[in-house]
Design goal:
Blueprint (H helix, E strand, L loop, with lengths): L2 H13 L2 H7 L4 H15 L4 E3 L4 E3 L1 H29 L3 E7 L7 H12 L3 E7 L2 H10 L4 E4 L8 E16 L3 H5 L12 E4 L6 H13 L5 E5 L3 H9 L4 E5 L10 E5 L6 E9 L5 H12 L7
Parallel strand pairs: 3-4, 3-5, 7-8, 7-9
Antiparallel strand pairs: 1-2, 5-11, 6-9, 6-10, 6-11
Helix pairs in contact: 1-2, 1-4
Keywords: DNA-binding, Transcription, Transcription regulation
InterPro entries: LysR_HTH_N, LysR_subst-bd, WH-like_DNA-bd_sf, WH_DNA-bd_sf
Family: Belongs to the LysR transcriptional regulatory family.
Amino acid sequence: MELRHLKYFITVAKELHFSRAAELLQMAQPPLSQQIKQLEEEMGVKLFNRTQRRVELTEAGVSFYERACELLENLNFACDEAQKIHLGEKGDIILGFTGSPTFHILPRVLQVSKQEYPELKIELKELTTAEQVRALNKGEIHVGLLVPPINSNLLNIETLNEGSFVIALPKKHPLVKQGAPVDLSSLANENFLMPRRKDGPGYYDAMMNLCYQAGFEPNIILEAKQYLTFISLVSFGIGVALLPSSIKFIDREEVELMPIGNSLSNWTVSVAWNKNNRTPALQIFLKLLKKTTLYTEK
């Protein structure tokens, strides 16, 4: 039995008229009748009752028609799904991300992906830069949003955008009343909240350079991973924190984010993926990512 036999049978079963079915199939009626006869002989089942005036499905024909329609529908679905996977329009992406992209890059690319490629399934894993590099090298994630520098010969790395730092201060801090920008040297005696260097040396070093440029080494009293942890601690007056300007997108009722005067250091967000990963879904996601980050945040 061939696929064309099913298509011929389904068309005749729908029309219950060989001439009309042959016209729809763009073939002559005698060859169509012969194909249906061959199908019945191969199956050993009579599918149609034929008279000079009418064509009817037998009881076996009704059952076979239902199953044949299901089979053809499943086949069409399988072909469509395979094509979408081949084009990268359907598939699974495991996306690693670190803090700073969370508030600007990540929401936008997820929104665009949902709109343009709804069958592209994206699984999120929040990891530090160091954890992402390890996961990418092992194939545990497909792509990462992280902060350079990144030392790995196994990865492709491209810069997405860069942004400035802000200083997070409690609303009641005296410098908030003075207005922006803040001279970082005026915070030399403050207690600082900082990320751990091993989690993201590029981000950590950029913040330390800011302090060194201002003429002091920060008094670090606490280290943490999450930016929201810093915001919470700053709101209670535990200390102050240098944060990426993208954090302005989150609610921070008791914290003021102040620009820094004469700042020469920026943070950079890059995308990284394993050089051996050439799946179509990854290529589609990378195009979406670059399209949604065609700007430099200052």
